[in-house]
Write a structure and sequence with these properties.
The complex is a heterodimer. By secondary structure, chain A is an alpha/beta fold. Chain A is 23% helix and 28% strand. In chain A, helix 1 packs parallel to helix 2, helix 1 runs parallel beside helix 7 and helix 5 runs parallel beside helix 6. The chains are: A alpha/beta, B alpha/beta.
Chain lengths: 311, 106
């Protein structure tokens, strides 16, 4: 017989951890379910400089470690499991995982997002063999080699800068002719002698025997194709994709109102189902940052508390 | 669970008898660190049927690349010196890893 929690939080990124912290602090019995590492997307970034009140040189993992500790301190329980299916209607919400079944009176969905693939031909064959979406995981493999970074926003430029600590050359491949990244980050990138740029370019296809050894890029304006091969002495190169994220919402299709896979809520994190809330990157929203995810988590937890108090 | 390095990998993994599970991880690889406790649990649970090893690829880069590992995490099964199965990156979920182990303990 499983315990009936007041709140189950799905996902232990900044939204989920903040929801757990606020729910725990309100003395609601709270369970956070996470299938991977705490922190979600921010856990794999080396430096975070725009979290308000953040510490200089703070990394994603160190910020998240403090959030995890805080949620735990206020009594939120945590379990490692992957949820396969959910039943969200009614008084008792049910979540079915690989390791067990979980029940709660309210659910806060904070499942976040996963990296968008680069979208080139043969991409799947080279993930983990030259193609990566995690610079902190894989930069070390490319020490003194060349790497390419696809993207033009903050993530692409910041991760490119991180990669310059390892690779001898980093080339940013962007489909337009100007970056979208914040100006302060752009300035640093332009000043970095190890970083160069390929503008109006996308990756068309990748190839290689057992690992990434060549790729064909396409000019978005002229359609011209150019082949790029690994330096013969290196024999390989890295290709990192930082072009945005797709929402982790497949579990809720057909149940919750969504827009392009993002969950629709009102300003108080309510979904269309009573007792079910959404927080963080999974929501339809204009700005996806750690600070806005944390804010959503706090609001969702207090709304859950309000809902339970008035039942 | 045995942590191997570039000097012991050949003897402990490639030349071992029977099947060997290898957890390829690295310094600063957060997903790898998150999986490690689960892999240790599997080593406890299935250690009598399969040998469990781990390799820090940050300290053994050329060896990892030689084993066609250029992205983490990778959980692999070796037999007779050859990688016969693996879970790579996002496919390396706790459930998929356990399913892979079960496929090979016969």
């Amino acid at each position: 017989m499983s315990k009936l929690y007041d709140v189950i939080v799905l996902g232990a990124g900044p939204a989920g951890l903040t929801a757990g912290l606020y729910a725990g602090r309100s003395r609601l019995s709270t369970l956070i379910i996470e299938k991977g590492q705490d922190g979600g997307q921010i856990a794999i970034t080396d430096e975070i400089e725009n979290y308000p009140g953040g510490v200089e040189g703070d990394s994603g993992p160190s910020l998240i470690a403090r959030m995890t500790e805080q949620a735990k301190k206020f009594g939120a329980e945590r379990v490692s499991d992957t949820i396969k299916s959910v039943e969200l209607e009614g008084e008792v919400k049910k979540l079915h995982g690989y390791k067990g079944d979980y029940e709660a009176k309210t659910v806060i969905i904070a499942t976040g997002a996963f990296p968008k693939p680069i979208g080139c031909k043969n991409e799947g064959d080279y993930v983990g063999k030259g193609i990566s979406f995690c610079a902190t995981c894989d930069a070390a493999f490319f020490e003194d080699f060349e790497v390419y970074v696809v993207g033009g926003g903050d993530s692409a430029v910041e991760e490119a800068m991180y990669l310059t600590k390892f690779a001898r050359k980093v080339t940013i491949i962007h489909r337009r002719n100007e970056l979208r990244a914040a100006k302060s980050i752009q300035e640093k990138a332009f000043a970095n002698p190890k970083i160069s740029f390929m503008w109006d370019t996308v990756v068309d296809s990748v190839e290689g025997e057992d690992m990434l050894q060549a790729m064909t890029v396409k000019n978005t304006k002229t359609g011209e194709l150019t082949r790029i091969e690994a330096d013969p002495e290196d024999g390989l190169f890295g290709l990192f994709g930082f072009i945005g994220y797709n929402p982790n919402s497949a579990l809720f299709e057909g149940m919750l109102d969504m827009e392009h896979g993002y969950i629709k809520t009102d300003a108080d994190m309510h979904t269309n189902i009573e007792g079910v809330f959404a927080a963080g990157d999974i929501r339809v929203k204009s700005l996806r940052q750690v600070v806005t995810a944390a804010a959503d988590g706090a609001i969702a937890a207090m709304q859950a508390e309000h809902y339970l108090a008035n039942k | 669970m045995l942590d191997v390095d570039k000097t012991t990998f050949e003897a402990e993994v490639l030349k071992a008898e029977g099947k060997v599970f290898v957890d390829f991880y690295g310094d600063g690889c957060v997903p790898c660190a998150a999986l490690m406790p689960h892999v240790h649990e599997f080593a406890e649970k299935y250690g009598d049927k399969m040998k469990f090893c781990s390799l820090n690829t940050t300290k053994a880069r050329r060896l990892a690349i030689g084993q066609k590992v250029m992205g983490l995490p990778v959980m692999a099964i070796y037999e007779n010196g050859v990688q016969i199965d693996s879970c790579v990156k996002d496919d390396a979920t706790v459930e998929n890893i356990e399913a892979m182990i079960k496929r090979h303990i016969g």
